[in-house]
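User: Sequence in, structure out. Go.
Assistant: Echoing your sequence, followed by the structure tokens.
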Amino acid sequence: MNDSTTSPAPDNRPALPDRLSIDPRSPHHVAAVFEHDIGIVFNGKERFDVSEYCISGGWIKVPSGKTLDRKGQPLLIQLKGRVEAFYK
């Protein structure tokens, strides 16, 4: 079996960090990562509403409905479990 069919070809995508946030004001925001499509698997299911994740801590932050904080940003709740990040 050819190795190129089982693993993606190396390219210039940056390594996915242990902790990543979509908020540009956060110190954990890495703009170079968001130039590519990334996916998050949480407890075996792919999630599309993740605002921040930490692989080593085992948590993700997702918006809590339509609730906003005092700065007008979505109110986030933290869910704990198994987190995996990957490039699509």
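User: And one key feature?
Assistant: The chain is about 5% helix and 40% strand.
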